[in-house]
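User: hey, got a sec? need Large ribosomal subunit protein bL28 folded
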Amino acid sequence: MARHNEEDSMAKSDITGKRKLLAQNVSHSNIKTKRWQNVNIQTRRLWVPELNRFVTLRVTTRDIRTIDKIGLFAYAQRHGVTL
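Assistant: Yep! Here you go:
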């Protein structure tokens, strides 16, 4: 499981590593200003039947949907993460 320290405390998924993206607001006059698109990160306590225990992770809402579909253990293996 990923550990959190000061330099890694940004909003980032523990499994996929997704984090905020730099984007641009574009006005009607085509003036562009930079802005951040944040990832929808949720802290979840998830049950892993293969390990017979709960694991607390910061995951995106898209991660949660996929975990519901295929399971946390399989999803973590797919992304090369050990629980």
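Quick note: The radius of gyration is 16 Å. Let me know if you need anything else on Large ribosomal subunit protein bL28.
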